[in-house]
Amino acid sequence: MAKIDTLIQAATRDNTRKSYRAAIEHFEVSWGGFLPATSNSVAQYLADHAETLSSATLRNRLSGIAQWHIDQGFPDPTKIHSSKK
């Protein structure tokens, strides 16, 4: 069973990476967004697709955008940052 579990985990990671790549492509190519993104551009992207994409798809796209920023060392524009000091 350990080998099966390893294969399932590897496949899941591959599928996640493919999904995130598709999210970035949609954000940049289909919608015309720029990376690194701003919180405002991410909000506009979500608003522009709110009526045509499911909430699950929007969450996935948001995750892909967030992960791209994390991987590249940029602040995550999908998170709300407090201005309190």
Describe the 3D structure.
The protein is 68% helix and 0% strand. By secondary structure, it is mostly helical. The chain is built from 3 helices and no strands. Helix 1 (2-30) packs across helix 3.
Helix and strand sequence: HHH
What is the count of helical runs?
Answer: 3
User: In terms of structural class, how would the helical and strand content be classed?
Assistant: mainly alpha
Question: Stretches where pLDDT falls below 50 for ≥5 residues?
Answer: none
Distance separating the two termini: 51 Å
Helical amount among residues, as a percent range?
A: 55-70%
Radius of gyration: 15 Å
Number of separate strands? 0
> What is the average of the pLDDT values?
88
Strand content: under 5%
Sheet with the most strands, sense and barrel status? none
3D shape: globular
How is the quaternary structure best described? single chain
